[in-house]
Design brief:
- This protein is an alpha+beta fold.
- It is built from 4 helices and 5 strands.
- Strand 4 and strand 5 form a beta hairpin.
- Helix 2 runs antiparallel to helix 4.
- 18% of the residues are buried.
């Protein structure tokens, strides 16, 4: 009786305090599942945040570029009806020759009179200065030039009136930036982290 009691007690004790063979693996699986879920949620939130930030930057850049381009293009278009007066080319300097800075472009200073009042200007065209390269080539300081003046605001003038091809290209680039930004933003909002 004593031997049976001694051999039976440890067995009973073992069954009462021991763990089920499946209990520990199941707990580990649940912990791993919870950890993976938390990681996926964090990854999804992080990816969405970065995507929305990139989208906002692209859209904002597109708006700025488009606004500048539309403004420049509109001024160039309006300058086609400005009044032409004779003026004096005070200085003309060329930049970019042999410097690796791209196409050469001029900077100018000129004077003109409008309604009996003297004015000065430095605007070659409404766009990239390099667009004026061919049309102003050969000019020298002291020569007479045509200056196109905004009669409603005589201090506003230009040597080469008309809308700029550069402004049109920038407008197209701005629209593309906004479209790409909206696509990136939509993708970020619909992003779901891959399940492991």
């Amino acid at each position: 009786l004593c031997l049976q009691s001694n051999t039976f007690a440890p067995a009973c004790l073992s069954r009462s305090v021991g763990h089920s063979p499946r209990a520990l693996p199941e707990a580990e699986r649940m912990h791993k599942h919870n950890t993976d879920s938390a990681f996926a949620i964090g990854l999804q939130a992080h990816a969405k945040g970065i995507g929305l930030l990139v989208a906002a930057v692209l859209v904002l850049a597109g708006i700025v570029v488009s606004f500048y381009s539309v403004s420049t293009y509109d001024r160039g278009k309006r300058s086609l009806v400005w009044m032409a007066v004779r003026g004096d080319l005070v200085t003309i300097e060329w930049h970019g020759y042999g410097s690796g800075d791209g196409a050469p472009f001029p900077t100018v200073q000129y004077r003109y009179d409008f309604d009996g009042k003297p004015y000065a200007g430095s605007n070659t065209c409404f766009g990239a200065a390099s667009e004026a390269t061919c049309k102003l080539a050969g000019l020298q300081a002291g020569q007479k030039v045509n200056v196109f003046v905004n009669a409603a605001s005589p201090q506003e003038s230009v040597l080469l009136p008309g809308p700029s091809g550069f402004a049109q290209a920038c407008l197209a680039a701005g629209v593309v930036l906004m479209i790409v930004g909206l696509i990136v933003g939509g993708s970020a909002l619909n992003y779901h982290a891959p399940r492991s």
